[in-house]
Design brief:
Layout (H helix, E strand, L loop, with lengths): L4 E8 L6 E6 L2 E6 L13 E5 L2 E6 L1 H14 L1 H12 L4
Antiparallel strand pairs: 1-2, 1-4, 2-3, 4-5
Helix pairs in contact: 1-2
Pfam families: HupF_HypC
Protein name: Hydrogenase expression/formation protein HypC
GO molecular function: carbon dioxide binding; iron ion binding
Length: 90
């Protein structure tokens, strides 16, 4: 199962400029924010992340609702977080 997981934008990466660092479940990872070039992103914003790409900007309320739902899924969510932990870090 593939999931889109909310991540909080922590910082921007200078080079290449289409990368940013998000925190997902206590894990920080670089993601590509190029699909959101028209958005005014800033640290503290929430984005929906899938396979290393920010797909959309979401509100903190929506992020929390999705996180609550994902936690209810149990093992699929834990598997996704484990895969994230095992991938290259920020």
């Amino acid at each position: 199962m593939c999931l889109g997981i909310p991540g909080e934008l922590v910082e921007f990466v200078e080079e290449p400029s289409d990368l940013a660092v998000v925190e997902v479940g206590g894990v920080r990872r670089r993601i590509n924010i190029g699909l959101l070039a028209d958005e005014r992103l800033q640290p503290g914003d929430w984005v929906l992340v899938h396979v290393g790409f920010a797909l959309s900007k979401i509100s903190e309320r929506e992020a929390q609702a999705v996180l609550d739902y994902l936690q209810e899924l149990g093992q699929p969510y834990e598997d996704e977080l484990e895969a994230l932990r095992a991938s290259d870090g920020a």
